[in-house]
Structure formats: structure tokens, C-alpha cells
Amino acid sequence: MTDMQIVDDYLADLALTEHPLDADFLAQLQSRHVAKHTFNSVSAVLKHPMPLEVDHLFTKIIQKQFGGYCFEHNKLVFNVLNSLGFEVKRLLAKVVYNRDIEVPRTHRATLVTYKGTRYLLDVGFGPQGAIYPLKLELNKPQQQGHMTYRISQNQAQEYCFDVLKNGEYFTLYTFDLNHYSEADCELSHFYSHKHPNAAFVNNLVVSKKTLDETHSLRNGEYHHIKANHTDITEIENIEQLHQLLTGLFSLNIDEAISAYLFSKFVKPA
Fold first, then answer.
1. Neighbour-count burial for 136-153, b at 16+ CB within 10 Å, e otherwise
2. How buried is residue 114: exposed, middle or buried, by Cβ count under 10 Å (0-12/13-18/19+)?
3. CA 204 and chain centroid, separation
4. How far apart are CA 214 and CA 126, in angstroms?
5. In the chain, what are the domain boundaries?
6. pLDDT (tens digit, 9 = 90+) per residue, 41-98?
7. Which fold has domain 3-196?
8. Using one digit for the tens of pLDDT, what is the confidence trace for 155-198?
9. How far apart are CA 71 and CA 135, in angstroms?
10. What's the gap between Cα 262 and its chain centre?
11. Domain 204-269: which CATH class?
């Protein structure tokens, strides 16, 4: 497929073909993408090949509706936006979860500049990620449904992607605006799905979210998160896991795969 064929089919998938290419287009793209296409570690935990060629990403995420993680989702969207003429920049972030620690850059996102305004656009951060792009404006609360986010800076002058939790801001990841190439992303991607200690190798995670609710599976627990309440369901058997994966999350996997995932991540022997 050509780049423009991929763009056209991607926009059709999100019902954005006729939308003007403006700031609202960016918001609709991110919100529709994270609502429809799951963030998940299934390919990593099954040790499937995970090439980052755009043709492969389009087939996996859009045609097969199999989702993926940040290096897949955000590369596909980066290429779509670049082909449409948006000013885009690769970001490589450190996922710190509010800790003052040195960690590798294992998260990919995108900086989009539109009419002089810079936006953090991220369709690959799972259940805690934003629904809409965030303006790169320091210390300004940005409300999205029942979630409040902000962009701040730490003492090292890195940007921080923060979420409000229990009345206090919690830094999810930090990033800078240095130049990063696809080769840099390939290296981080390789670590993230191959290293024996990498989070995505050792945990079954699947999620999708809308403005009103988040569906999140992590190993043996399924969380249904709404504004004022979270229902937590313990996964008790293979059939229950299989129904979640194939029903709620629309993943095309057979029951033997669900049985393997159950034995390894839900109820390991």
C-alpha cells in the first residue's frame, strides 16, 4: 500500500475522512483511536514478531484490529499526520510513575505543532493516557472527562506528563524536545518487547478508553473505571478471560491462546 492509501483507510476507519485538518481533527483522531484500538502487550507476551514497518502496523492495528503498544500505535499515527502535512516530532519518554529515578526512554509519543500551538499527542499510553492531545502549556490543568492532566517541568528542565490523583499531581512520564530518529525508537522498542525484565514481556495488559469510562485488564484483574467508581473483577477461569479478550476487547485469538495466557499471567502454577 502507498502512504496515502494507508492514510485514507486509517481516516475511514475512524470516520474522519471529511473532517477539516485542524486542532479538533487532532482531538478527534486521538479520542477515536484510543476508544477503538486496544493498547495491549499480547504480541510481546506471545513472543510474536513485532516489526515497525508502517505497512505491518496498519495491517495489525487497523485491518486485523489487534492493537499494540506505544511504539506501534504512535508510529502509525506519526506517519499518518506527517503524510497529511502536520508538523510532527518524535518524542521518547521515560516512564517514571512519580519516582525520582533514572530509567531508559521506553515510551514513544508525538509532538504536533499546529498554528503555533504545540500539542502532546499520545495514542499509546493505555488506561492512564489522555483522551485528547494536551497543549504544551506549563502548569495549566487540562480537564478531560473525570481526569485532569497537566504539563509541568522538573528540576532537570524535562517536561512532565502529570495526572491528578487524590488531589495531587502524579508524574506518569518525562520527556524532552531533543531530536530522536526512527533508529532511536527501534532500539527502545527492541528493549521493551525483548528484554527479560521489560514490563510488557512480564505482564498481560489490555485496555481501551473513552471520555466516560476505561476498560483495563492487567494479569488477573479487570477494572471498569468510571468517574466516581471502579469495579474490579478477579479473573477466575479461562472462559472468563477469553470472553474479555475476544468480546470486550475484540481481539481475534483462539481459546488455546487464552488458556496459555491464563496459565502464565492469571493463575500461574
1. beeeeebeebebebbbee
2. middle
3. 14
4. 9
5. 3-196, 204-269
6. 999 999 999 999 999 999 999 999 999 999 999 999 999 999 999 999 999 999 999 9
7. Arylamine N-acetyltransferase fold (3.30.2140)
8. 999 999 999 999 999 999 999 999 999 999 999 999 999 999 99
9. 22
10. 23
11. alpha beta
